[in-house]
Amino acid sequence: MISLKRICNELEAEIHAEGDLAREVSKAVVGDLLSFIMGSDAEGAAWVTIQSHLNVAAVAVLKDMPIIIIAAGRAPAEDLKARCGIENITLVTARDSIFDVCIKLGAMGVKG
Known about the structure:
- By secondary structure, this protein is of the alpha/beta class.
- It has a single domain, classed as Udp-n-acetylmuramoylalanyl-d-glutamate--2,6- Diaminopimelate Ligase, Chain: A, domain 1, CATH 3.40.1390.20.
- The chain is 38% helix and 21% strand.
- The protein contains 5 helices and 7 strands.
- The protein has helices at 4-11, 34-38, 55-62, 78-87, 98-108; strands at residues 2-3, 14-17, 24-25, 28-30, 46-49, 67-70, 90-93.
- The protein has a 5-stranded mixed β-sheet, with helices on both faces.
- Helix 3 (55-62) runs parallel beside helix 4 (78-87).
- The longest helix is centred in the last third of the chain and has 11 residues, at 98-108.
């Protein structure tokens, strides 16, 4: 299990909504199609995406995902930041591509 704080540090991620940084994950899911994520085995996973709109928070709540990692230097919408704060979801952005974020997560021991 890897803490959200460690993930944020190792990705050099910018935190937009803090959530519970002590919470831990052991797996990640990657995808930009919200229906794909909803239909996946993503419960409790870290989510890596380039989607940055409000509906992302709804899917994260549905799947009990404690962290959303927006990759490729994309900026989150203000309403997404606010909703993640309300829902206690850690929302971060990473400059790295989705591929590179996944490599780093794998190196930390996070499974796909």
